[in-house]
Design brief:
The protein has 141 residues and is α/β, with parallel strands linked by helices. The protein has four helices and three strands. 33% of the residues lie in helices and 9% in strands.
Length: 141
């Protein structure tokens, strides 16, 4: 894929463009962009570490968030109305993504919650109000 076929961050609605520091999605992300951002199809992405799979997940999140953009291009979201679950292989990765997504999405009122097996302080209300739940496969409740 060359520069002329790469999808641009400017292909996203204006409120979402600022979360990325780059101008173009890479070739994997550009190829998957229509499926991630413009459809509700189920996908399995198998690609090497560092190839951009997390950005693809973010595009799916942005697709869900795009339902909350008003005609005036403002973001109007009620806490807990979006439910997205991110399962990572390690708690360290969960914590890294929690920091990153809280920074990226927090100003829009998106609530991220870490739900891992070594934390027993879960409250039903916290889970209900969470928009993005980050967890590992070994959650115990």
């Amino acid at each position: 894929m060359d520069l002329y076929t790469l999808k641009s961050v400017s292909d996203l609605p204006l409120p979402f463009r600022s979360i990325y520091s780059f101008r173009y999605f890479n070739s994997l992300q550009s190829e998957c962009f229509p499926s991630c951002f413009h459809s509700d199809i189920n996908m399995v992405i198998s690609a090497p570490t560092g190839s951009g799979k997390t950005v693809l997940f973010e595009l799916c999140i942005l697709r869900l968030l795009s339902r909350f953009i008003t005609d005036e291009m403002k973001f109007n979201h009620a806490k807990g109305t979006l439910k997205t679950i991110y399962i990572a292989p390690s708690k360290a990765l969960v914590q890294e993504k929690l920091r990153d997504w809280s920074r990226k999405f927090g100003s829009w009122g998106i609530n991220c919650l870490e739900l891992t097996g070594d934390n027993d302080a879960y409250k039903t209300r916290n889970i209900q109000e969470a928009d993005i739940i980050l967890t590992t496969p070994e959650v115990t409740m």
